[in-house]
Amino acid sequence: MERKVSQPDVTTKHGQFKSNRKSRRDVATVENLAMLEVLDEESIVNQLHSRYNQDEIYTYIGDILLAVNPFITLPIYTEEYIRRYIHSTKAEHPPHIFAVADQSYQMMTHNKHNQCIVISGESGAGKTESANLLVQQLTQLGKAPNRTLEDRILQVNPLMEAFGNAKTVINDNSSRFGKYLEMFFTSSTGAVVGAKITEYLLEKSRVIHQAVNEQNFHIFYYLHDGLMSSDRKAEYHLRPDTAYRYITEYTNKAPDISSISPKYTTVSRYITEYTNKAPDISSISLNRVKFKTIEHCFEIIGFKKEEVSSVYAILVAILQTGNVEFTAKDSGYGGEACVVANQELISIVSELLGLDYVDLLDSLTTTGMVAKGEVIIRDNSVQEAEDARDAMAKALYGRLFSWIVNRISSLLRPGHVTGQDEQFFTIGLLDIFGFENFKTNSFEQLCINIANEQIQYYFNQHIFAWELEEYKNEEIDATEVAYVDNRPILDMFLSKPVGLLSLLDEESHFPKATDTTLVEKFHQNIKSPIYSRPKSNDLTFSIDHYAGRVEYDAQGFLEKNRDRLPIEITNIMRMSENSVVKSLFQTPLTKTGNLDSGSIHSSSKNSSRGTSPMSTSPGVTTTSYTSKGSMGGSRWSPSSSGPTNSNYLLPLPGHNLLKPMHTQGSASMTRIQQTVATYFRYSLMDLLNKMVSGTPHFVRCLKPNDFKEPGHFNAERITSQLRYTGVLETTRIRRQGYSHRIPFSEFLKRYHVLGFKQGDRITINGESCRCLLNNLGMKNFAIGKSKVFLKYYHVEELAQCYEDMCQKVVRVQAYVRMWLARTRFYKMKWNREKACIVIQKNTRAYITRKKYTAIKSKRDEAATVIQKAIKGHITRKKYKPIIRQRHEAAVKIQSNVRGYICRKKVNRMKSIQEEEEQQMKKLAEEEKARLIQKNFRLYRLKKRTDARLQIKQRQEMSATKIQAYFRMWREKTAYLKRRKEMQKHQSMQKTSQQASTKSTVRKSQKVSSVHKDIPQISSYVPQSPQKKFFS
């Protein structure tokens, strides 16, 4: 539901003021429409109107919830309301979206079966907001083991809305893709342990083209304003003065309209209309805040910074790609060719995507063809180049969106749970685009409305067809309820070979086919009263959907269905240096057209196969919707193991006869498999497989007016929605019929404790079931051949009784456990007291023994000391005279011995002294003799030394004179020679003569000084014999 910032005190309706609607209570309202006494359209509309005026936007139809969009924020989603609707019954509180979440959670834990919540309604009826509230409540119900997981799950929806929602004419936050969110819970504790997202039918064409008064996906505006206000705009080459074609109405800059293809004339009008508008400052500020929120979501969920940067780079590259323009040129051989007018953008895009500049340029302007083993390069025309450019932008965004979904699923996959046999149950939430009927409806609206037809058919089958068939098989008397069966519409769309989608695929495979030939083929082959051809020759046709007639404009159907991407672009993307871009084009596509998600599966190993005790849907597995062996048509391929009914698209209740068609495998890469219609078929099949695998819960969202005005309740608009959704018939069958059918064995197995005693023998038959229900005081039930038929309120009563019984059993068990625990406690207490006494006794004995031992040891020590003293005294008294006598004798002996030793010592000293005196005399005589000898030798040596020194002195003086005369002659000769050579240099000659003269004087002085010193030295030389001296 759309949320506004504030609520006005007074609202207007068609220009007239009205009072506060809370004060108007014209009709007595009921919370469950099945309880109305008068059941008709007027009564239902009056009830809804009255409740809407009282701000009660939720109403039950049995177990189905109706939600009327208030277009305003109501104070009924606070923490108080969240706690109020946890583990409560419907009768305790008013209808609420939180009650549906609680009911599905309780049925999952109670019945041990997967659940599915289907949210349906028109675009702008509040489906996305309802899905967000359901996720919020389910997260609170299944308390995660850690807070981080809860935060991650809650951040998924804002992120998906940014990338998958956009503004349309009738809804500012319209889902442009189908989302099936599965939350995983443990079977033992019911704690949420993970989640998985599956996306369907993303409207990729919105990336390159938006209708009048519509916008591109939200993320482009968040990214543009968020990066422009940060310092990262230069990193992504964003400029404030640049207009981006894909969001031109927002950036307020008009590109060259002549460069836009004629097939986008609506874009041209839209650009012209919005060129002169001033930018909305409040929207820009809000987008910046939203961008911060998206960054926070990426961080909380667990995306790496490198991955987030790659996502931003891809988104900016898409914006830059939209501005690439082409101009025609002469090819030289008469054909068409083109060149890029602004090649600087190719450089920017190649840098952002990690591509080679030349490769990207060639892939946009040329096409390669293989002929007879040779590659032929052909130039593209301007139109072909623009188609290649737009195809690249769509492929990048579509694969990026699928990659983000797979990445979220991998980050939120259930982790390791303690216990090898732990099982997971799932609660799935389907939030898909609502039924759309615009002024101009194209291929996207056709696919959206077919998907809504399929969901409506599933609702009819579950609420009406299967239930009425059960009545017939079980021979239950029930009023026949007439309902509008939309099976013929699905036959017309999906049957082969003349179904609308089959004809579209067939025409898409012809290269020369046009939208005109396609419409002609529709007119010729589709023979159905719900198909109408126009009265004029316009390329239009009309379909009578369950929600009303819609006129479709077939212009562009073939091109949108083909959705072909040039192989050259695919190849260069696979060689990208950006790891994210490379993975987008290297990962194979599934049959639904999405990137392969790997090993993340929605069903756990416990996958319930049969009907649960309280299941409202049979244990079935869907397969292809086909009439001639393929998807499309009204008959199912039966197996030989059981009956089927050719009147229904789904198998009969209670039979699991059909083999599932798995859609997780990679799709073929042939051109036949690459049409959007083919992907659409498999997406519907996969969606049905997921929906039928769990017990469904339905939330019908209603749109009170087309102006998004709070307080404006258009009765005619509501009546129209009630009619085509079959609310009146649903109310009747919920009031008159039996919405829950449970086999006897399952019913008695679960509820026998409520009506039988412990020792009773219970036979599994209808009578036992009747007896059990009678014992419980229930009425208005029915017993069939093999099943018990209960109304919607019976199941809640049984569940309440079962819970009450369980609480009583738990209470009895608690009292018994209390008595046992108390008994064990008293026994343990008595044993402990007894043990305490023993411990005290032993402790006291130990303390006494320890004290006595200390005293005894002290006394023993004192007695020993006394005995020792007495014995010593007696012994001393006895031996004292003997000791004195012995002492006197010892003193006498010692005195005699000392006298003898002293005398002997004195005699020895006298003899030694005499010997020393004799020795001293002898040494003195020897010393005198040595002195005489010394003096004599000294005299003799001196005499001899003086003679030798005189001889040596004379010899040295002679040698010195000879050397002096020789040097004088040598120097004189050299002087004369130099004098002759240096006559021209008289000044230098004088200097040289003086130097030589001074040198000669110094040497002679030195020689003379040597002669003077020799006698002095010789006087100190020791005297020795002359022969020894000269030797």
Automatic annotation (TrEMBL):
Keywords: Actin-binding, ATP-binding, Cell projection, Coiled coil, Cytoplasm, Cytoskeleton, Kinase, Motor protein, Myosin, Nucleotide-binding, Repeat, Serine/threonine-protein kinase, Transferase. GO terms for molecular function: actin binding; ATP binding; microfilament motor activity; protein serine/threonine kinase activity. SMART domains: IQ, MYSc. It is found in: Cell projection; Cytoplasm, Cytoskeleton. Residues 1-23, 592-648, 979-1031 are annotated as: Disordered. The keyword Repeat applies. Residues 684-706 are annotated as: Actin-binding. It catalyses: L-threonyl-[protein] + ATP = O-phospho-L-threonyl-[protein] + ADP + H(+); L-seryl-[protein] + ATP = O-phospho-L-seryl-[protein] + ADP + H(+). Residues 597-608, 633-642 have a biased composition (Low complexity). Residues 906-934 form a coiled coil. Residues 609-628, 985-999, 1016-1031 have a biased composition (Polar residues). Residues 28-803 form the Myosin motor domain. One of its GO terms (cellular component) is cell projection. ATP binds at residues 121-128. Its EC number is 2.7.11.1. GO terms for biological process: regulation of actin filament length. SUPFAM superfamilies: P-loop containing nucleoside triphosphate hydrolases. Its main location: other. It is an enzyme of class 2 (transferase). Gene3D superfamilies: 1.10.10.820, 1.20.5.190, 1.20.58.530, 6.20.240.20, Kinesin motor domain, Myosin VI head, motor domain, U50 subdomain, Myosin, subunit A. PANTHER family: AGAP011099-PA, MYOSIN MOTOR DOMAIN-CONTAINING PROTEIN. Belongs to the TRAFAC class myosin-kinesin ATPase superfamily. Myosin family. This is non-specific serine/threonine protein kinase. It comes from Biomphalaria glabrata. The gene is 106050201.
